[in-house]
Design brief:
Aminopeptidase; 8-stranded mixed beta sheet
């Protein structure tokens, strides 16, 4: 199992035994998270309430990892699950790129765990997976998610119109990008500020 270590947190893939903790956080954060997520397809199991569906999700993430097309991690602080950060839609060939998505327990919001997790994930993306670019797409009015990229001074690259279906509506997204060239220039500083012992 891959463990990525931050200053205050650990990133690791989720497994079936994480279901009780994951479900508790997701249930408690329904109103905080659902408005920013795609609509669940009719007829599909509710992964939040169905342990077997959660197990299938974990297996799918493991298969993505084996194929090199996705790398999903739970965010754990002092051993407790508090969110997720994912590197998805990994493209090789001339792109060498991936998309990043994240969420955090509202009770843990404001502690800068997500910026720290994003720096840890960026190091993995650029130094271990040898990607050239990662992109974060955020609904313009999602100020909490935007604050993450602002804290890290990640470059804003423009608006993609009607980019993703979110909660039943096709939403514009602001796109933010970080490349290996940026990492070579700023990686040491980001690691010193967010990951390495203070």
């Amino acid at each position: 199992m891959t463990l990525l270590l931050g200053r205050r947190l650990v990133l690791r893939q989720l497994v079936v035994t994480d279901f009780p903790a994951w479900r508790e956080v997701r249930r408690r954060n329904d109103g905080w998270l659902t408005k920013w997520e795609p609509t669940r397809q009719p007829g599909t199991p509710d992964v939040i309430e169905d342990r077997d569906a959660f197990g299938v999700r974990c297996s799918a993430r493991q298969r993505e990892r084996q194929l090199g097309i996705g790398f999903g991690f739970g965010i754990f602080v002092e051993g407790s699950f508090c969110g997720e950060i994912n590197l998805s839609s990994v493209q090789r060939g001339p792109f060498q790129s991936a998309s990043v998505g994240y969420w955090i327990d509202e009770a843990q919001a404001g502690n800068s765990y997500v910026p720290e997790a994003l720096v840890v994930l960026a190091k993995h993306a650029f130094e271990d997976l040898l990607l050239h670019r990662i992109e974060i797409a955020i609904i313009p009015r999602n100020s909490a998610s935007r604050r993450v990229v602002e804290k890290l001074a990640i470059r804003e690259e423009g608006i993609a119109r009607w980019f993703l279906e979110i909660n039943g509506v096709w939403e514009d997204h602001v796109r933010f990008g970080l490349t290996i060239e940026d990492w070579r220039e700023r990686g040491d500083e980001l690691l010193a500020d967010w990951v390495q012992p203070g």
